């Protein structure tokens, strides 16, 4: 029984190490990239280029007006 408990505790420690040393830095980098993309209006530029002809009758908007979808 003690062996099973030791294995479970070791597995828990390993999971925490994976989360702290691998997943957390990846998440931090992704958050930094998101802030850069949002701050430079990069996504807004892509959105404008994609839907710049949204006034075209072939496009319509849903009730809240976002995003235009092609019919």
Task: List the main descriptive attributes of the protein structure presented here.
mainly alpha, 8% strand, rod-shaped
Topology:
Blueprint: H1 2-39, H2 42-50, E1 59-61, E2 68-70
Antiparallel strand pairs: 1-2
Describe the structure.
With 71 residues, this protein is mostly helical. Helices cover 66% and strands 8% of the residues. The protein is built from two helices and two strands. Strands 1-2 form a two-stranded antiparallel sheet. The longest helix has 38 residues, at 2-39. The radius of gyration is 23 Å and the shape is rod-shaped. It starts with a helix and ends with a strand.
Brief digest:
The protein is mostly helical and 71 residues long. 66% of the residues lie in helices and 8% in strands.
Strands in their spatial order, largest beta sheet:
1-2
Termini gap:
64 Å
Number of beta-strand segments: 2
Q: What is the overall pLDDT average?
A: 78
The ordered string of helix (H) and strand (E) elements is HHEE
**Helix/strand/pairing category:** mainly alpha
Helix count, per DSSP? 2
Residue runs with pLDDT of under 50 for 5 or more positions: none
- The shape is rod-shaped
Question: For the CA atoms, what is the radius of gyration?
Answer: 23 Å
Please report which band the strand proportion falls in: under 5%, 5-15%, 15-25%, 25-35%, 35-45% or over 45%. Answer: 5-15%
Task: Let me know the largest β-sheet.
Answer: 2 strands, antiparallel
Amount of helix: 55-70%
